[in-house]
Every structure is written in structure tokens, then in C-alpha cells.
Amino acid sequence: MPRTWASLAPDLYLEPRGKRRRAGLEQALREAVRSGRLGPGTALPSSRALAQELGLARNTVADAYGQLIAEGWLSARQGSGTRVADRAMPAEPAAGVSRLWPARRRTTYDLTPGTPDLAGFPRSLWLAAARRALPAAPNHELGYQDPRGLLGLRETLAQYLARVRGVRTTAERIIVCSGFAQALSLLATTLHGQGARVFAVESYGIALHRDIIRAARVRTQPLAIDSSGAIIDQLVGIGASAVLLTPGHQFPLGVSLAAERRVAALEWAQGSGGLVVEDDYDGEFRYDRTPLGALQSLAPDVVAYVGTASKSLAPGLSLAWLVAPAQLVDALVESKRVSGARTGVLEQLTMEEFIRSSAYDRHIRRSRLVYRQRRDLLVARLTQRSPGVSVTGMAAGLQAVLALGGGLRGRDEPSIRTRAHRAGLAVQGLGEYRHDPDPEAPAALVVGYGTPPDHAFAGALEALCDLLG
Question: Which residues contact 142 (CB under 8 A, 6 or more apart)?
């Protein structure tokens, strides 16, 4: 802690009066927190006292405090004054401690894709559903369960998916999982046991998903993507037993699989005995077009459909649903049984009630409106501040692709991310999603506009525009 607060910003008095002094004070305080000079919980002087010490107007200090509170650097409570918020960086792991799952570094603004606004989780509605569901649950439902999950939730999901996504299924063909990762692992393990050795994937996707397939001793083979989605013709002759697709809204590029390619994918599966794995990761969030029905609805016997609550509610619920072709159900259930993995009964009971009471539908409608407004604001701000940046992939979902132009290439993305991190902004480069590295590909960022809470979204956009210039 400094001996005098003036040492935080010794040259502040040289700045012209007004906004530049306030901005200078804000930046000095951010740097003091980021560097650890001001640790979590450190009490700051009152706005009056700091203004006197720095020779500033009290309103300048008060406005700077207010901005930093809104950004999450500081906190203020009645009776305890203004303090440094709990933003401490995670400590380095001790010798021998695994780094395979590193703690996520905190930043001022998080625009990484793949997560909804967790502050928007409907806590009171979820709690109300749990209070109704638990007293009404039969005692036996608290015991060891069918590996497929609770029958009541599976019946409810069958009705909901038919109504909202056009999925054709019965409760017997639904397996409740702890997330998409577990569903994919069950599919890859089961298919390997049946002789699969090649699993086709889109050339852009989540690296963890490819790792899961490889962990089942199945090789991944990429399919190129263009404006009409994955190029299905590339399935011919590669010996694939399955293909993983995001047909409704490709992740991360945001294109949808064209109608003729949907048909081609199903014809390939029917003709070769292969399986299409449909990842409907954000099926609830469509903005500028008529929602596309699930691919599974066209051929339930060759498509395994997977949906989750990770984008619509929160990843921490660990709830997903795998709708399997009839001929695969028994093998998948056995794979889940021997894995020892189970999905929490209380979460299943609550989710069933949450859907049955229409609370889920109401939450989706509210969330869709919020995310659409955020997307529109992102486009408007970039158009105004960064006209050289091309924005695509936003007709649905929670992320956009920003093509940077200016001759930048994939090899430049790490340095751009480093600059962003230094400015307190978390973004991801498109190259992180490529199956095969390509340092000469045009540089782009994948920006998630669902992650920041409402109070921080405007600041996140300002930081993004400052980065892009």
C-alpha cells in the first residue's frame, strides 16, 4: 500500500482539467490493482480526501470511483467505504500440482465465446422450481437411477424438443448427460467398440471435442467449411464412421448447413451405415431468420442429436440430452453405466419442473431479446468505431467473427490477444478453433457477446473498439 496516495499518479496534475484527469486517475488505479500494489480488500480514501491529496475536484474522483465500480475493479458498500474488489490473480500452482486445468485468469472484460451471461441465470425461478419439485418427488427417485436419467425429465424433454426443435423421439431414446462433452465421449467410445476408426469433424470447432474423440482412439478427419457450411462431399472415401456437425449455426464461423448439404449428409449416413452427430449447442437463439429445425427430424435413425442447458441457462448445471438412434441406445447406456458417470438427481428434478411450468420458455424469450440487443449494439459500435473490421456469423447464437483485414494473418492473432489481455480484455483468435494450424490464414477474432454482465457490456465494447482502432 502506498505511503501517500499521490504516489499512484504523480503526474496527474500535469493533465488538463476535466475528463483527461479523470481518465488518468482511472488508469492509475487499474494499474495499481493489476500489478498487486493495491490488493483485494484494500480500503481507498473517501472521494473528498483523495481529491484534496491529488489536487482534483471531488466530482472527478467520485466519477472515477463510480466507473471502476461499474467495471468491477472496486466495490462499495454502505458503511464500509470503497475498497479494491476481489480481483486477485490466481497464485502459481505449487510444485507437483497439475496444470492440465489451469485457473482462469481474471480480466476486466470477458468476451470469450461459449458462455452465456451468468448474471442472467434465473435464480429465483430455478429455486422456485426446485422447491416445487423436491417435495413432490417419490423417494425412489433419490436412489440409484437408470443411466439414461429420470424418466420424468426424459418424457418432458421429448415433448419440449418435439415442440421447439422438431426432434422425433421418445423418452426411451433420450440419455441425460452431464454436458455435451460426456455425450460425445459416450458416442466416440461406443462407436470405437463397434469398429469405428475415423470420425469426421468440421475444420473449425472446439479443440476439446477433437481431444475427446481421439481419447476414444478414433482419428479425426476435418471437413472444409464455406459459406454453405461443411463440405459434405469430402466424406466420400475417407473411411469415416461418423461426422460431427453444427448444422443450425456452425461454431465458430456462424454459417448454417445448406439444405442440399443436409440432404447429402443424411444420404451419406444411410448409404454408408455412418452416424451424423448433431450438436445443437444454441438452438434456442435465432434472430434474423426462421429457426431451422433439427437435422434429426429428417432421419432419426442415422442422427444422434445433442442439446444442452449450457448456453440457455448455465454450464454449471451440467445438463445435456442425447437423443440416440434406436439401434445405438443399448450400447450407449451400457457405456454410460460402466463409466460410473451420473447426472445429479436434484438438477434433473428441477429441470423437469422448470420446463413443465413454462419458466424455461419465458427465460429463453427474455434471453433472446437481451442477446439480440447486445448483438445489434456490437455491430453498431464496430461500424462506427472500427469500419475496417468485417463482422459475420451473427444470425444466431452468442458470438460473432471479426475479420481484421489490414494484411493481418493467423500468425498475428497471439500478439493481438496479448495486447487485449494487457488492456484487461479477453478475446480469442479464430486460429484457436482450426483443426490444422494455418499461420497464413486471414486474422480474425471470435467475440462472445453473451458473457459480460449487463453493467459491463458497454465498457467491454469500448475496450474492444480501442483494441481494434
Answer: 345
What kind and span of H or E run contains 220?
A: strand 219-223
Q: For residue 3, give Cα distances in angstroms to 8, 37, 52.
A: 10, 11, 16
Does domain 363-468 match CATH 3.90.79.10? Answer: no
b/e per residue 110-146 (b: at least 16 CB within 10 A): bbbbbbbbeebbbeeebebbbebbeeebeeebeeebe
Residue 15 predicted with pLDDT over 90: no
Cα–Cα dist 100/448, whole Å: 24
pLDDT at site 233: 97
d(CA 117, CA 368): 12
Domain locations in the chain as residue ranges: 5-84, 123-360, 363-468
CB within 8 A of 250, min separation 6: which ones? 202, 204, 225, 229, 230, 256, 257, 393
- Tens of pLDDT along 270-288? 999 999 999 998 878 888 7
Rounded to two decimals, the pTM is 0.78
**CATH class, 123-360 region:** alpha beta
Q: What is the pLDDT of residue 69?
A: 83
Q: Report how far residue 170's alpha carbon sits from residue 158's, in angstroms, rounded to the nearest whole number.
A: 6
The fold for domain 5-84 equals Arc Repressor Mutant, subunit A (1.10.10)
**pLDDT confidence band for 91 (50 / 70 / 90):** very low
pLDDT at 379 over 80: yes
Question: Which residues have a Cβ under 8 Å from the Cβ of 102 and sit 6 or more positions away?
Answer: 90, 93
Could you give the C-alpha distances from 66 to 35, 122, 177, 218, 451, in angstroms and in order?
Answer: 21, 27, 43, 53, 22
Q: How far is CA 216 from the centre of its chain?
A: 25
The 10s digit of each residue's pLDDT in 205-216 is 999 999 999 999
**DSSP track, 392-455:** E--SBSSEEEEE--TT-BGGGHHHHHHHHHHTTEE-EEGGGGBSS--TTSBPEEEEESSSS-HH
Structure confidence by residue, pLDDT tens digits, 441-467: 999 999 999 988 888 899 999 999 999
Q: Tell me if 243 sits within 8 A of 261, measured CB to CB.
A: no
Q: 135-157: per-residue pLDDT in tens?
A: 999 999 999 889 999 999 999 99
Which of 444, 222, 184 has the alpha carbon at shortest distance from 305?
Answer: 184
Contact 319, 404 (CB under 8 A): no
Q: Are strands 425-426 and 399-403 parallel, antiparallel or unpaired?
A: unpaired
Answer yes or no: same fold for 123-360 and 363-468. no
* Sign for the pseudo-dihedral over CA of 366, 372, 376, 378: positive
- The amino acid sitting at 407 is G
Pick the closest to residue 170 from 323, 336, 354 (CA basis). 323
- Please answer whether residues 247 and 295 qualify as being in contact, where contact means their C-beta atoms are separated by less than 8 angstroms: yes
